[in-house]
Amino acid sequence: MRYAELFLSNTMLGTAMTSSLDSTSCASCGAPINEASSTLPTERNPCPSCGSIARSFGVHIQETLVIREKIGMKQERPGYRKPIYESVSGDDLHRDTGQWNKLTREIDRENNRYKEVITNPHNGEVLRHCEEPLTDHFGRGSAKPKPSNGS
Ligand SMILES: [Zn+2]
Asked: Cα(5) to centroid of ligand 1, in Å?
């Protein structure tokens, strides 16, 4: 009986806010006035409806919610110390560029397979594609020195 676990990690929320000053109206009667918001009070023309020079400015604020997340899966099997299958996919922050990329990583210990694909979410460009036997992937590092004849 296999045991599979689904996990969600690295969920981050951020907001991007943009505001624009985009309407001018009379503060007394509310009539829209075609006048730049930067116009000095002394240079304003009286409101065509009521003659007031008081103005009210409308500010539109737009807020965008940004969600970054990573979803992963682990499959364990009794008798194995490590999960026989792991996968992660989601948003990945590239530290050097500060850019968010899409990451998919699979570790399949049963079939000795390692796969990692990183793409640019804006244009779909593949930034990194690595697919190799798991033993090669981890054998390359410092964890497992190459077997040698004592030299
Ligand atoms: Zn007015």
From this structure: 65
**In the chain, which ranges are continuous DSSP H helix?**
134-139
pLDDT of residue 150: 45
Percent of the chain exceeding pLDDT 70 equals: 73
Whether the CB-CB separation of 88 and 71 falls below 8 Å is answered with yes
Lowest-confidence pick of 55-59, 65-69, 76-80, 133-137: 65-69
Sheet holding 3-26, edge to edge: 3-26, 55-76, 85-94, 99-108, 113-119, 126-133
In single-letter form, the type of residue at position 32 comes to P
Angle at 144 between CA 139 and CA 146, to 5 degrees: 80
Residues whose CB is less than 8 angstroms from the CB of residue 29 and which lie 6 or more positions away in sequence, other chains included: 47, 49, 50, 52
Amino acid at 150: G
What residues flank ion ligand 1 with Cβ within 5 A? 26, 28-29, 31, 47, 49-50, 52
Residue 143 CA to residue 146 CA, distance in Å, equals 10
